[in-house]
Amino acid sequence: MPELPEVETIRNSxxxxxxxxxxxxxxxxxxxxxxxxxxxxxxxxxxxxxxxEYLSRRGKYLLVYLTQNYVLVIHLRMTGRLIYxxxxxxxxxxxxxxxxxxxxxxxxxxxVRRFGTIHLLSVNELDGIGGxxxxxxxxxxxxxxERYLGKKLKGKTRGIKQLLLDQKIIAGLGNIYADEVLFDAxxxxxxxxSSLNSEEVSRLYNSIVRVIKEAIDHRGTSFxxxxxxxxxxxxxxxxxxxxxxxxxLCMRCSSVIKKERIAGRSSHFCSTCQx
DNA sequence: AATTGTACCTGTCAGC
DNA sequence: TGCTGACAGGTACAAT
Length: 275
Known about the structure:
The structure is a single chain. With 275 residues, this protein is of the alpha+beta class. It is 26% helix and 24% strand.
């Protein structure tokens, strides 16, 4: 479940190590992960010999910029991992793609459920990835503010939780942080977007920024699968208020935290202090 | 146009 | 013990 804070932590943990590395070879153990170019042969032909210039992130997408205006776009979906390690280390089960570098190290893409994706494109083809092109603003970017959020919620019949998960509205929130943000803002996940008054929109905005910042500071939430590029776990699971806390007492009002299916997702909330 | 449902995968765990 | 079914969750796409 890598969401924005986890992908940002992965980017941070890999950036220094990958910068300047030359790709000497690639092992494509499961080609179905690679969505572009069409053939494995073409992927190999393009990527071998390129060097890594820098790593960037947009929403939950990791962008690895290469020489000659190429870019590797990686999405980990639910169980994807990227691990930087020496080539002598034995390959983990479900390792699908391995990049070999000029220093004997490798970048390995591991994904139990194989939902993750890799695109190799030239920079001017980036908008060909629909999910990336249609992303809403970064929650910590300057084009995300109360006015924007209010405008996006206006007239929406969908529940606020569903709206927070919509990557076209805001980039990077997933199920964990949507629940945590709504608890922080003391708003019920089922409230229609249009029902929020301006004071609630303001609270929601501040909670989104605060929760995401704190999670990045804690290097992400390691609930099940997530680790950073060095295999290290995050620490934010120690700071969660509602996610997977059903049956436990609310930190704010001591009522019992509930878990219900909302908009097809498990949702955790306090029905006493969230209104 | 906006919204809802389902497919994509595999591992884990509860219940029988 | 071993089987079955529910569940985990991000996104694309089909259906309404």
